[in-house]
Amino acid sequence: MSVKVPASATLLMKNVYRKVFPEVNNQLAYWKERASQIPDPELRTQALASIRDKKFHCQGGSVYSMLAGEYWQEAIRFIVAYQTISDYLDNLCDRSTSLDPTDFRMLHQSMEDALSPDNKVQNYYHYRMEQEDADYLKDLVLTCQAVVRYIPNYRLFQHHVLELEGMYSDLQVHKHVTHSERIPRLEKWFGEYQEKWPMLTWYEFSACTGSTLGIFCMMAYGLTNELTKELSERIFSSYFPFLQGLHIMLDYFIDQQEDQEEGDLNFCNYYANEQELEERLIYFVEQTNQMMQELPDSTFHEMVQQGLVGLYLADPKVKKMSQYQALVKRLIQASGRKSSFFHWNIRVYNRLAGKG
Q1: What whole-number distance in Å separates Cα of residue 225 and Cα of residue 27?
Q2: 3-class SS of residue 201
Q3: Which of 7, 131, 248, 328 has its Cα between 20 and 30 A from that of 284?
Q4: Residue 322 confidence class, pLDDT cut points 50, 70, 90
Q5: What is the pLDDT of residue 1?
Q6: Is 5 left (phi over 0), alpha (psi -120 to 50) or beta?
Q7: How far apart are CA 200 and CA 178, in angstroms?
């Protein structure tokens, strides 16, 4: 690839702090201002909460902008808008006034439309009480579509990003319906894919579908006009299931206490015991390490995996998880030396940012 991508952890973090995070802050400031102007109080509350509480999703995802060369700002524009849709809808479904799968499906149509530049925006709130958002969600979709139109050969890999989006949206529908229906729906859904990915359980497969990283990776490469059909297929198979699964399992791992208090589904709860949880997390780390070797810029993709482990396990919530401290150390060790560097670096950043 002709784009010069950071190949050392020090250079990566320098780019993150000097370029990526400031641009993410700029983009999020705009969407926060837009969210504050939403007339409906429930929609406004959830839009603002998603930006306040899940900013690090946009920060982490925007690391992929380094694959976009001179188009790095466009990559961040897309990643922030798309991730903001994801986080906003997750809040709307998690803390919902509705348990209607038809409503959830319509809301998530926005994520398909964001990746489909020929699709017209719709009333994504059609099946719910709350309606007035001053075009907040539509404009997020239009922002994504505008960036997609920068990519001349988008048709070569659009089916791959739509496949990832389709599984993501299916997950969001199945896991937010009434409690008694969630597990049966997720198990039945996995039955459609079990033959293709027999090494996974239904709850691990569900976790793998819950990440947007494969989409961000393809979009960033796509902006350079160097993403071929063959490379998009390699990215898909390298990112799904293992890197995406590791990403979301770590997310669920640190949210166990919070999800228990809120009554939310947490895929870490379905392992037989802590030992099995540890074995499977390390399995995902090892499989991800192996799959990253299949990609160009493999050092960068390895650092993404190591950075994910460092980022999530540096979260202040982890300090309160005293029963898992030995597991945390083993996971960092299994991820490689750079994972320790990222873990330390992000803990320092969190302290400086007042996050504990």
Answers
A1: 24
A2: coil
A3: 7
A4: confident
A5: 56
A6: beta
A7: 25
Distance CA 64, CA 136 (A): 25
Query: What single DSSP character describes residue 40?
Result: S
List, for residues 82-120, the tens digit of each pLDDT value. Answer: 999 999 999 999 876 778 999 999 999 999 999 999 999
Pinpoint the alpha helices (H) of the chain: 9-15, 21-36, 41-53, 55-61, 72-94, 101-114, 136-148, 158-176, 179-191, 202-209, 213-223, 229-238, 244-254, 256-262, 274-292, 298-313, 316-319, 325-335, 337-352
Q: Is the previous residue joined to 241 through a cis bond, with omega within 30 degrees of 0?
A: yes
SS3 152: coil
Residues 6+ apart with CB under 8 A from 339: 306, 307, 309, 310, 332
Q: Residues 67, 23, 211, 172: what is their CA dihedral angle, to the nearest 10 degrees?
A: -140
**Up-side HSE of residue 130: CA atoms within 13 Å toward CB?**
21
Per-residue HEC secondary structure of 261-322 comes to: HHCCCCHHHHCCCHHHHHHHHHHHHHHHHHHHCCCCCHHHHHHHHHHHHHHHHCCHHHHCCH
Residue 9, token pair as written in the block = 């952890």
pLDDT at position 119 is: 98
Q: Enter the tokens of residue 1.
A: 């690839």
Provide the pLDDT for residue 342: 83
- Residues 6 or more apart in contact with residue 139 via CB below 8 angstroms: 34
CA distance 14 to 281: 29
Contact at 8 Å (CB) between 150 and 223? yes
Query: Would you say residue 355 has pLDDT above 70?
Result: no
Q: Name the token pair of 288.
A: 């991800």
Count of beta carbons in the 10 Å neighbourhood of residue 99: 13
